[in-house]
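Q: I have 98 residues here and want to know how they pack in 3D. Can you give me a structure?
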Amino acid sequence: MPCVTTPSGANFDTHTRQTEIGEWRIIDARQAPEDSVTAHLDFAQKHGPLNLPVLKAAFAEFGSRLRSYVLAAPIGSTNRRAWYLYEWLTGHSSSRPT
């Protein structure tokens, strides 16, 4: 059976179970978000630089789900940040759910 090796230039962190290959960061499947828009938004805020044009397009498509996401944990930092980014990127200013 052939031996599987790490690609050249890859950096594997055994503590966080992440592999970096060039500009790509590959995260262990155990850290993958559940299959929902809000879970992916939460994951993106915690694990990477945000791509604002992509985030703006996502807010345009799924903005209605954001209110329930914020209401689920209104004092959570990722939820409050998401609400701020939503208002800033879409231009829709409204009172933040409390």
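Q: Anything worth noting?
A: DSSP finds three helices and three strands in the chain. Confidence is low (pLDDT under 50) at residues 1-13.
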